[in-house]
Amino acid sequence: MTTSEDQAGVSRAGLLRGGLGLVAAGSLLTGTAASAQEGEHPNVRLIKDYYEAYGSGDLNRLRRFFANDIRWTIPGHHPLSGTKLGIDEVLAFFRELGKAGFRAETIFLGADGDWVVDLHRGWSTRPEGLDILWALGFRIRNRKIVEAVNFASDQHAADLFFWKAYKLAPLPGRLA
């Protein structure tokens, strides 16, 4: 088993590819995949509640959604990319996103077992300039997010925006 496989031997990439297939299928079948449905999966409800808290701008409200050992992976080659480990690093990342006025509008949520796949529109308001679709894979354990992996629909646009919005500190202070 590699580090990108869970205990069942299923790769995260495979799960997320399958989940993105659910996005297309769910949207075709229902037309409004994000609408509340009878018998809603509890992990979908958890992520809806998470997005409500995120939209409030109060980072302390987000703490209750995260496992202590959360891993949040941001793709790309920019100052905010990489894997954030633990609640404090994840909240520090969100604090930086808040400086750019990031917003999210959920389009689709689907669950299978411990995973929730989310498709949403994400955009910046300070400065304006990034407005793309994002897909996230959330892994849930004991009603907490233990892992999130982001996928940008246009990684080049995301990288360009983050380099413009988040300048590196000058040397040598950056290395201290």
UniProtKB/TrEMBL annotation:
Official protein name in the record: SnoaL-like domain-containing protein
Organism, as annotated: Kibdelosporangium aridum
InterPro entries recorded: NTF2-like_dom_sf (IPR032710), SnoaL-like (IPR037401), TAT_signal (IPR006311)
One Pfam family, short name: SnoaL_2
Ranges where the SnoaL-like domain occurs: 48-147
PROSITE patterns: TAT (PS51318)
